[in-house]
Every structure is written in C-alpha cells, then in structure tokens.
TrEMBL record:
GO terms for biological process: pyrimidine nucleobase metabolic process; pyrimidine nucleoside metabolic process. Keywords: Glycosyltransferase, Transferase. GO terms for cellular component: cytosol. The keyword Metal-binding does not apply. It comes from the Bacteria. It comes from Acholeplasma laidlawii. The keyword Transferase applies. This is Thymidine phosphorylase. It catalyses: thymidine + phosphate = 2-deoxy-alpha-D-ribose 1-phosphate + thymine. Belongs to the thymidine/pyrimidine-nucleoside phosphorylase family. Residues 345-418 form the Pyrimidine nucleoside phosphorylase C-terminal domain. InterPro entries: Glycosyl_Trfase_fam3, Glycosyl_Trfase_fam3_N_dom, Glycosyl_Trfase_fam3_N_dom_sf, Nuc_phospho_transferase, PYNP-like_C_sf, PYNP_C, Pyrmidine_PPas_bac/euk, Pyrmidine_PPase_CS. GO terms for molecular function: 1,4-alpha-oligoglucan phosphorylase activity; thymidine phosphorylase activity.
Amino acid sequence: MQMVDLINKKKYNQKLTAEEISFIVNGFTKGQIPDYQMSAFLMAVYFNDMDIEESTALALAMRDSGEVLDLTDIKGTKVDKHSTGGVGDKVSIVLAPLVAHLGAKLAKMSGRGLGHTGGTIDKLESIPGFKVVLPLDQFKNQVKEIGCAIVGQSGDIAPADKVMYALRDVTATVDSMPLIASSIMSKKLASGADAIVLDVKVGSGAFMKTLEDGEALSRIMVDIGKKAGKKVTAILTGMEEPLGHKIGNALEIYESVETLEGHGPEDLTQVVAVISGHLLKHAGVVKDYESGYKLSYDTLRNGGALETFYTFVKAQGGDVNFLKNKDQILTKTKTYEVKANVAGFLEKVDALNFGIAAMKLGAGRATKDDVINLFVGIDLHKKIGDEVKVGDTICTIYHEEKGLKEAVEIVNNSYVVGPHKIKLDLIKETIL
C-alpha cells in the first residue's frame, strides 16, 4: 500500500476502505508519512468529502491511535456529553452533579479554552485546590461512588487527532464536515462512555454559524457514534447570545452554583435539563425523554443536586467553602459598567464579540501558551428580548486594567437596542 495511490484515489473521489484509512492515520501518527503527503490527502478530502463509512473508519482509526478508556468495571450505562463550544457555556459543570444525583454515571474528560470559547477545565481550576488530573483508578472510583468526575483530557487520548488537527490548521482544511466530525468523535469514543449527547452550538458565538451546517455536522457525528455501537443524540442549541449571563472562568463557576441552588438563568437551566433528560433515558433512569427533562428541570429549580456538586468538588480537592461564599468572586477585580444610551428592547448580542472582549481582558487564550486570569470577565445583565431603559446597565466588566479599553469598545459595538421584542428559539433541533 502506497500513500500516493491513496491520495490519488481520494483525488478522483473514490471510496477508501477502513484498512486504507487506518494505514494513513497510523503512518502519519508514527512519522512514516510526511506532512506534504498528508496535506495533499486532507485537501482531497476537503474537496471530495467522505461518506459515513469512511468518516467512521477515520474516527475509529484516530481513536485507536492511543489509549481507549475501559470503564466496564463501573456498573450501569456510563454517559458523557460534548459541546462544540460557545460563549458562557458552563453546561458540564451543572450537568455532572445533576445526572449523578439522579442516578446516572458521568465520566467526562474535558479540555481547556482557546480563543473566544472557554474551557471547562479552566473554569473548574478557578475553584481553589480543584484537581483536574486524577489517576485512572481514582477517576473510576469517583464515578462509582459519587456518580461523576471531570478531568483534563489525557495526552494519550487520540494522539492522531492532535497531529492531524495541527496540520489541518495550517493547510486551510479545518472546515471539512467529515474531518470535524471524526476529530470530535475519535475523542468521545476513546473516553469509554456508552451513551453520548452532543450539544452542537449554532449562531454567532459558535463554530457552526448556520442551522444547516449544525444539522449536517450533527448527523455525521450521530451516525459515527451509532456505527461504533454507542447511543448518541445531538441537540442543536442557539448561540446567538452568550449562554446565561456570566462569561469568564470564576464568574461561570458563580453562575453554575446559582443554577444548582435553584435560581440560575432560564436558558442555562433549560439546556442542561434537555441534555440531562436524554442522558437519563439512555442510562435507563427514566422511561422516556420527557420524564427525564421534567425530573432534571424540577431538580435544578429546587436545588436538589447542589450537595452532590459540593461532594464532587471536595472529592477532587476543591474548596467547598469558596463556593458557599461565592460572592467573594465578584470582589476579586475592579468593575466597569456599560450603560445604555437609548431605550427599547435588546435586539442583538454578538456572542462571538462578547467572547473576544472577555479574552482581551485575560479570561481566555489567544495562543495555547497564554496564561489566563481566572477572575476577569463579563456579566451580561440583559438578554435578547429584555426591555432596556436609558441608563440601564447592559453589562458589568470585571477587569484588572488589561484590555479594558479594547473590551469596552468591542462590547459597545456588539449589542443593538431597538423597537422590536425578539424571542429566540434556544433548542433548535434534536437528532436521534
């Protein structure tokens, strides 16, 4: 088997076998196939696409390039979720203790933030003492005993994806549906869960800007998961505005605690309940999604999962007293208020730009080597559809001087107050 022959095959839009795809992935990961040949192959895929069998073979080959977690000694159905990334997305932090409290087992590996999207691991690290690296035995024992654990993604998980993504990034082949889907699913399939819910964000603050693209990506990922023997559901959720009110690591922990206490923002509560409803159904905790959704929503609103969250944080070394006295988070930095100079209704909030503004303050990374400030960020007081009066505070910026002027300028150009009261569809579609 020669790489040049496989490049030629895909160049002429011929279907590759699983064996051929495995040869390509393994050869490139081991350094036996040079960058220039892999670049040619990726560009051929970009233009000629891959069908679902090829996409599945690619995901499985990348999965098998490294460690595949074996969670079979944990009784019951193990569940997981993945978000394609957005602004203010703290769903995993609320979801993990919720599904654990309700009887499911969530074993999750998460990543750090890069660019305008925040990372779950960075957010959890804003809790003093919280350990995001655990020995495998401890990770599994915690899932057995508490029902959930969230750790940083191991470097041994899908190493082929890392080297392939780095090459895609510099060859303009990132935005290929089969390559995106295979990349995401290779890591999810390596994480050992039996059932996965994919939260595919759609809108200005998401990687997928249109509903059509979100649907296309979701269907490929769901099909890959099913062909790999997993229960998979995709939820397409709106990212036209930030999720919840708070953007920034410790600020999002604050809002997660609020939500688990029973008085979190409606949009965040709803998204978590939707994902939890499907996971509870997959895990056999409830008979149908509707029952799972109601149980999840009601539990969030009555604060039933809060103690499980504290137990989860304590098990990973986190300071629970820090969370119980969460108002201190709001006093760690200076504040600046952005006020409305016209009256009406909030018609638009550019989620992408709000995420970029938070990154300018130091809440996110422009490069992987950047050091983030865990306590800076933005608290958006108004949501799309809310009435706005002259002098109302649109948002509070938590800062330490760095990037403040730039962030204020970005924010002032990233929302619109007008005469129309707009209602957004938060849950856009479910793909089973």
